[in-house]
Design goal:
six-stranded mixed sheet; about 260 residues
Length: about 260
């Protein structure tokens, strides 16, 4: 079973570019998109429900043109849930959860830290960390039933190797100690970073580059996009990859292959 994940930074914009040919070429069985910034009714049917795929769209109800996720699957899941169960973290269209016979699959656009209020202090970091905790609690509950796969833009680089300039970003959201500590807790609980599982300490492996500084040309990036699997699936991981030759967004796609 193959999976792909991509923060598209605006689906309507990206899907009008030649870069969206990526979707017609993908060998994935399940594709998760983040930061779609669109409601389903704003998308032409051929792109919203492409032939040969089942599709689900979660859009923000609190702010138009904000956040949003989508999932395309060649297989019909047993069940689909929108948003996390905790009402404090609903309304921004950040989560789609598909249950398959073999596993629980999450596609999530995790919150960013928001506006900087002072050195190392960011407006939405408390909300961000609360969202992470709400997801973690739910995933642990579901994991009692069957394994968990989660993909998406985590908006955190876990370790120094996961961004080009760690020292310069120690007080920036995405690399704050509190954010990295959550990732430590997550992995210590038995969730496997599949890219590192396959590729070890490979340097220069990033998934996001700032538009402002033409950082992609120099590979001054951050690894913010992940596939994690719960420990039960560790030995089923056959490949994990970053498609850094795919353009169209400030992020690139990432992928996972499981043998189930």
């Amino acid at each position: 079973m193959r999976f792909a994940s991509w923060n598209v930074n605006g689906f309507r914009s990206l899907s009008a570019k030649p870069d969206w040919d990526w979707f017609s070429r993908t060998q994935a069985d399940v594709v998760g998109l983040q930061e779609t910034k669109a409601s389903p009714e704003q998308i032409p049917e051929a792109r919203r429900e492409p032939q040969g795929w089942h599709s689900w769209w979660a859009a923000s109800t609190v702010k138009k043109g904000y956040s949003g996720v989508a999932v395309f699957s060649r297989r019909q899941p047993l069940n689909v849930e929108y948003e996390l169960p905790d009402p404090d973290y609903q309304g921004e269209g950040r989560t789609l959860h598909l249950e398959f016979p073999e596993l629980h699959f999450f596609n999530i656009y995790f919150p960013n830290g928001g506006e900087e209020l002072g050195k190392g202090v960011f407006k939405r970091v408390p909300y961000k960390m609360g969202f992470f905790d709400a997801f973690f609690e739910y995933a642990e509950d579901l994991r009692q039933d069957k394994p968990v796969v989660v993909c998406g833009d985590f908006n955190i680089s876990h370790r120094e190797i996961d961004l080009a300039r760690p020292r310069e970003n120690e007080q920036n959201t995405g690399f704050l100690p509190v954010e990295r500590a959550w990732m430590d807790r997550f992995t210590e609980a038995g969730y496997v970073d599949t890219f590192r599982h396959v590729h070890g300490q490979e340097p220069g492996a990033y998934t996001w580059w700032s538009y402002k500084t033409r950082a992609r040309e120099r590979n001054i990036g951050w690894r913010l996009d992940y596939f994690f699997v719960s420990q039960e699936l560790r030995n089923h991981v056959r490949d994990a990859w970053i498609e850094n030759d795919v353009y169209g967004s400030d992020h690139c796609p990432v992928g996972l292959a499981l043998e189930l």
